Amino acid sequence: MTTVTARAHTNIALIKYWGKRDAAQMLPATSSVSMTLADFYTDTTVTFLADQAADTFTLDGHPQPVPAKVTAVLTEIRRLAGWSRSAQVRSVNHVPTAAGLASSASAYAALALAGSRAAGLALSPQALSRLARHGSGSAARSIFGGLAIWHRGSGDSDSVAEPLPMPNLALRMIVVVVSAAAKIISSTQAMANTAATSPFYPAWVATNEAAAQQMVAALAASDFPRIGHLTEQSSMQMHATMLAADPAFTYFQPATLRVWQLVQELRAAGVPAYATMDAGPNVKILTLAAHVDAIVAKLTPEFGQQLRVTGPGPAATVLEERP
Ligand code: DP6
Predict the structure, then answer these.
(1) What does DSSP say about strands 32-49 and 147-150: parallel, antiparallel, or unpaired?
(2) Which of 128, 135, 176, 266 has the fewest Cβ atoms within 10 angstroms?
(3) What does the alpha-carbon distance between residue 307 and residue 44 come to, in Å, rounded to a whole number?
(4) What is the residue range of 18's domain?
(5) Residue 1 Cα, ligand 1 centroid: separation in angstroms?
(6) Assembly ipTM
(7) Domain count within the chain
(8) Mutation test of ligand 1: which of 40, 103, 138, 238 has the most ligand atoms closer than 8 Å to its C-beta?
């Protein structure tokens, strides 16, 4: 049986995905736009075995119960391959645990690529994006390097990501690790609660879908102030829907707001820096290479040990294929 190892890099959404219109099919409420990052990735190795009773899964060398999302991707691969073999999945995260960055995007993109190849399938990037989406929505975008848009689409077959042309800008992201602790509530659960109970949610869906289209235009124009503004707005509006949910909740910690305040001070001083936060307290600052030093200097007195600077990363790729 073929054993395949694939690598996929994580991504950070500039225009967020927050909520599903169909949870069974993993269809998002809105389109989203992201940047795949150079420094954080997952390597996943898959072998399908004819004589193994059940799927097995190890993470960073430790055997684990097989997560339902892994089963979802493997089930879809078996359907496409037309066989019922069980899989051995070994995953290694190269997202430093201290970085506290979500790894499901890189994990399910790597699984989709390694698993489909191990099953003898040669899927197009779009078909891989669809497959990765069945594990975790944000993974649909990690099939691609640089910038990607995940289209809301009309259904299962066309709710996929595609790469966007890189603007003529040296984009950088500074990750500020406020806490490496596990999420207080998973993004899957939090977005479902928000969509079901937040009166702000319908407004967010309408605004964010328009913002995705505006972001495509801003990227095409290499208009960094506009790109940054749209990025910060989408994140803050997403977090606002959670404050209005029942029960109300937030991922923000005091230090999250402190970093955002420093970002606003930088901007007031003429430094282009824009904050974005996901389902956790850490802050990612979108900027341009020429301004990284000024931002690091501003943050170092309070967050010096917790900064990681990265830029756009590559598409998912096969590292090794062994018979
Ligand atoms: C805040 O992709 O982790 O990072 O589809 O339920 O697995 P599931 O959720 P997931 O959610 C990501 C949410 C986000 C925003 C984003 O990446 O677009």
Answers:
(1) antiparallel
(2) 266
(3) 27
(4) 3-167
(5) 33
(6) 0.99
(7) 2
(8) 138
